[in-house]
Amino acid sequence: MKLVLFGHIHQEFNHQRNGVHYLGSPATSIQFEPQSSSFFFDPEQPGFRLLNLYPMALEN
Prior knowledge:
Blueprint: E1 2-6, E2 13-17, E3 20-24, E4 31-32, E5 41-42
Parallel strand pairs: 1-3
Antiparallel strand pairs: 2-3, 4-5
């Protein structure tokens, strides 16, 4: 799988094109209104994206 990670767009983004997954992270502060032709704040709360790149070890 091919994956492109990016941030600093102040909104969550998830898209797939030509077998490549694109993931953008929401901001830990304010969010911007997605797909808006003008600048607007989104009422969504601050967020983050958590990625597990390797299987997590189970604790006994």
